[in-house]
Design goal:
alpha/beta, two-stranded parallel sheet, 275 residues, 8 helices, 16% strand, 7-stranded parallel beta sheet
């Protein structure tokens, strides 16, 4: 039975993916430092940190692939980002190598290229790093680690630059950047099953009417086809946010749309403002 090790399985994306990656002939090995709720049939739980080489290597034994989601999910002080997001990603890839795991799917982020200006949309799949935060730097570093392990050791390594993966879009920007839970399942399943992908960088976003911010060419080349569209939530989002539709005639420019990274590019994310 194929075994998929999922790090960060108790996090928001890990929780969404569990049911969507479940298969009758597949074992999901769920790893996290937090509580993984109610493991069911076809699941087993490992309590460990992605920064623990011995524990990660043991967890990787017998796995056919790793889905690496474990990370601090937003901006944080440098020492925390360095320890969990950068060193933790190195540990995951090195543990996979030691255990002979042939494939790692790494949850990168659009914040690795967050300072890409709107004039450059759609952002290419392999766009040069333009991180908007320490968090974005950590994802660019993770992509570099993935490239190294793919090219030096022959590992299949797919980096998914996720945009905004939530149950539903929460603000006007997400009407362009939303990745629905079901589409996330489709994308990660394609990453797990595409034959011999080698090293890839792809974007994770749904088929949003207001999209077109990033390329989907490489994701589609792996077999991903998004089905969902944030536009069904547009009226509700604008009503609850109290801001005008930026696409309406005469609407003022919203600075959150200036760069791909949105508010992560704002001065409020500067290092001296981090607690």
């Amino acid at each position: 039975m194929p075994t998929i090790l999922v790090t960060g399985a108790a996090g928001s994306i890990g929780t969404m993916l569990r049911s969507r990656l479940a298969r009758p002939d597949r074992l999901l090995r769920l790893l996290d430092t937090g509580l993984v709720d109610s493991p069911g049939r076809g699941e087993e739980v490992v309590a460990a940190s992605v920064t623990d080489m011995a524990a990660m290597t043991e967890a990787c034994h017998g796995a056919d692939a790793v889905v690496h989601l474990g990370a601090i999910p937003r901006e944080a002080p440098w020492d925390r980002v360095l320890d969990v997001n950068i060193n933790g990603t190195y540990v995951v890839f090195e543990a996979a190598r030691r255990a002979g795991v042939p494939r790692v799917v790494f949850a990168s982020s659009n914040h690795a290229v967050g300072f890409t200006p709107r004039a450059d949309f759609p952002v290419p799949d392999y766009a040069f790093p333009a991180p908007d935060t320490y968090y974005g730097v950590s994802k660019a570093a993770g992509e570099a680690i993935a490239a190294l392990y793919s090219r030096r050791y022959g590992m299949d390594a797919i980096c998914v630059r996720i945009l905004s993966c939530f149950p539903r879009p929460a603000d006007p920007r997400m009407l362009s950047t939303w990745l629905s839970p079901d589409d996330a399942g489709r994308l990660f399943e394609a990453c797990l099953t595409a034959p011999s992908p080698g090293f890839r960088v792809v974007y994770g976003v749904s088929a949003n009417t207001r999209g077109g911010w990033v390329s989907l060419a490489e994701a589609r080349a792996l077999g991903y086809e998004p089905h969902d569209d944030a536009e069904v939530f547009a009226a509700e989002v604008f009503a609850s946010s109290g801001v005008p539709d930026p696409g309406a005639p005469g609407a003022p420019a919203d600075p959150v749309f200036r760069y791909l990274g949105g508010e992560f590019t704002f001065p409020s994310f500067d290092a001296d403002r981090l607690s």
